[in-house]
Amino acid sequence: MSGTTLDDYTDLYAQRVHGMKASEIRALFSVANRPEVVSLAGGSPYTAALPLDAIGEMVAELIQREGAPALNYCVGQGEAALREQICAVMAEEGVDASVGASPDDVVVTTGSQQALDLVARVFLDPGDVVLAEAPSYVGALGVFQAAEADVVHVQMDDDGLVPEALEEAIAAVAASGRRAKFLYTVPAFHNPAGVTLAEERRERILEICQRHHLLVLEDNPYGLLGFEEQPPAPLRSRARDGVLYLGTFSKTFAAGIRLGWILAPHAVRDKIVMASEASILCPPTFNQRIATRYFTTMPWREQLKVFRELYRERRDATLAALTDFMPDGVRWTHPGGGFYVWLTLPEALDSKAMMPRAINARVAYVPGTGFYADGSGTSHLRLSYCFPPPERLREGVRRLGHVIEEELSLRSTFGATGSAGAPRRVAGDVPPGIA
Amino acid sequence: MSGTTLDDYTDLYAQRVHGMKASEIRALFSVANRPEVVSLAGGSPYTAALPLDAIGEMVAELIQREGAPALNYCVGQGEAALREQICAVMAEEGVDASVGASPDDVVVTTGSQQALDLVARVFLDPGDVVLAEAPSYVGALGVFQAAEADVVHVQMDDDGLVPEALEEAIAAVAASGRRAKFLYTVPAFHNPAGVTLAEERRERILEICQRHHLLVLEDNPYGLLGFEEQPPAPLRSRARDGVLYLGTFSKTFAAGIRLGWILAPHAVRDKIVMASEASILCPPTFNQRIATRYFTTMPWREQLKVFRELYRERRDATLAALTDFMPDGVRWTHPGGGFYVWLTLPEALDSKAMMPRAINARVAYVPGTGFYADGSGTSHLRLSYCFPPPERLREGVRRLGHVIEEELSLRSTFGATGSAGAPRRVAGDVPPGIA
Q1: A92: distance to nearest CA of chain B, Å?
Q2: Shortest CB distance from A73 goes to which of B44, B75, B427?
Q3: Which GO MF terms are attached to this record (chains A, B) (predicted)?
Q4: Could you give the ipTM of this predicted complex?
C-alpha cells in the first residue's frame, strides 16, 4: 500500500471538522511557557500547595489495600462512594439534599469539560442555539462549536449576566426562527470576566428561563473559592428542575486527576450516562478512589482555606499592580474569588495584535477574542493570577502596562494599525491548561 | 421555579438521543455480579496479578518528587514522555519507527474507547457508513450509533475477516448510493469472536481498502496477549498511510487508569487533538506519569508473560470444559490469545431469551445480539475467561451446558418459542466492564 498521501483523506472528514483549524495565537502559548516569560495566561491551579507527602502515603495505602479493583473498570456513572462525597462538596456550595441533590443523580466525568461535552451530545443538534455570557468560558465555546451549535452571547456587567439582555437575546433568537436550547452560565467568579451574578438577579434569570422553556447549564468550578465571602447560593439551589449543575475537583483538589461531575434531573442523567459510556466506557476508577479517600480521610476544608488565602493574596497583588502600572483608559474587574481579572483596553487597541509584542516583553495573557464565538473581544484580555507568586504577578503586570503604554503612544502617533475586521474565533485558539 | 416536571425537557433532546434507551438485558448484568453467579460476561482484566506493593511505592515516590505538575493540567495531545513509551509498546506489537511510528503522531486518550469516539467525531456525519466485522466490539458499535452512522457488518470465519465479503459489502454500500468511510477491525484475538486475521489475508484487505479509498481503523487491544505465538504483524505495520491504529494500557497494565492512544497520519492527528481538547481538555496527567514510570522503571515485559500465562491457563480450562459439557450442535472458536470465546448455538436457540434462565442457573454471558448493529446474533454468545479462576470457569461452563441442554430438550418437545423477529440493538445493551 503506497502512493497515498495524507491529504488523500481530507474528503473523508465529517462536516464539523471543516471549521477546525489551529490558530496563529496557539503557537504563542508554547513560547509563553518559557521561564523568562511571566505567564498570566494559564488557568492552572497551584497544586504545589497540596500536602503532597500525605497524599503520596494515602495513595500507596490505597493501592496496597484495594489496588486490584481500583485498577480495573467501574460503572459508567462513576462509583457510588465518590458520588456521595460529591454530594458533600455540593452541599458546601449550597446544593444539598433539601433541594433534591442525590448521589443517584450525579454522573462522574473526566473533568467538568466532559460534562459539558455530554450535555452538548444529549441536547444539541447542528444549528441549535446556545445562549452564553459575553464573554464566556473558552472550553465551553469549543464544545458548542464542535457540536455545530450557534452561540449567542448575552451582555454582562459587574453584577454578572444582565436579565434584560437575556430577555432580548431570547426574543432575537425566536425572531430569527430558531430556538435556544439552554443558557450556559458561570454565575460565581466568572471565567474570564471575574464577576459574580448578583443575588437579586438570580431568581429573575431562573424565571426568564422557565418562562421560555430554556434549560440552565450552571457551571460552578470556583464556587468554593470566595475570598471575602461565599458567592450567593447557586441557581440549582433555587430550582430542582431545569438546571443542570456542573462541578469539578480541578480547583478544590487536583486538575491532573481529571474528575468532574454533573448533577442532572433523573431522566437526563440516564442519557448522560449512556453518552458517557459511548465516549469513555467509565471514568478512571483509580482517580475516583483517590478522590474518595482524599475527601473522606483528609482535611479538605482546611486545604480549601489554604487555597483561598493563597489566591486572595495573588488577586490582591494583581489588583495593586494594575492600579500602579496601567495607563489611563484601561479598566478591569475586581473578582471576589476564582482565578481571573478581565481587562478592557482603550478602544483603539487590539489585544490579539498586541500579543506578539507582549511576548517579546516577556509577559503573556489570553486575548479576549478567545472568549467570544463571534470574533468580538479584541479590546479585552484575561489575566490569571492563580499560578505565579505575588512578586511575579506584579512584574508581569508592570511589563504589560509598559506594552500597553507603548501601544497607545504608537496609536496616537500613527493611528490604528490593528487587524481589520473581526475574524471569527477558530477552534483550538487556546490550548488546555490555558483554558 | 416550580411546576416543571422532568419530562418537560424531552423535546429539547438532540436527534441522536432518540435512539438511546436502556435495554432489558442491562439489568441482568447487575445480577451477574452477585457472588453466587459465575460471570463469563465481563471483560475485566485480572489486575490482582499486578505487583501492587511495588506499584504503590512507585506512585508514592512519583507524588513526592513531581506531585505538583503530575496533579495539574497537561497538553491535550498527552505528555511527550508517555508518547515515547507508547512507541516502545507499539514496537513490541510490530509497529515501529521503520514504518513511521513516532511519538509526534500519537494522541493519548481516555482508554481506546475515547480514541474510537474521536475518530467518529472527525470522520462521521449522520448517515455515513462504517464497515465492521460480524460480530464486532460492542463499545465501537456504541460509538458509531452515537455518531448516527450506519454499521454494515462483514462476514468473518476462523481466519478473521473474509476479503471477498469485504469487496461485496463495499459494492453493496456503493450500489445503495452511500459511501463507507472506514473499515473498523480488530485483527488480533478478536472481541468477541476470538479469531485472528490470517497472515495471507492482511495485504489483500489493505489492497481492497486502498483501492476503494477506505480508511482502516485498526484496534489492537490484545496484540501482546498471544498465548502460543504473536499474531501476524498489524495492518499498520504494512501501511504507513490510510490506517489509524488504536492501542490501550487496559490489558497490558491497568484498565482503571483509563489510558489508550491513537497513532494517526499527521494531518489527522491534528484534528484528533482538537476534538479531544473539546471533549476532555487533556487526559489525566497523573495517570500518564504513572504509566510512564511503570513502563520505564518496572519489568513490564515480564509482567506481560505473567498475564499471558494466566490467561492461557484460563482459556485452556474454558476450552476443556466446553468439550466436556456442551451438548452436540454447539460450536465455539479457539482463541490463540485475548479474552474471549464465541459460541454458536443450534439454530432454534436464542441466547438473549435464554439469558434469564442462565442467570437463574447462576451463570452469566453476553448474548450475541450486543455485537451486531442489525439485531442479528441471536444464536451466538460470548464467554470471557479473563477474570474467573480456572475452577470457576469450569463450573460456569458446566452450568451453561446444562442450561443449553434443557433449552434444547424444551425446544424438541414444544418447538421454538423464542422471541419473534430480530429487534435492533439498542444503545446501552451492555454496560462498561462487560464491554
Answers
A1: 22
A2: B44
A3: pyridoxal phosphate binding; transaminase activity
A4: 0.94
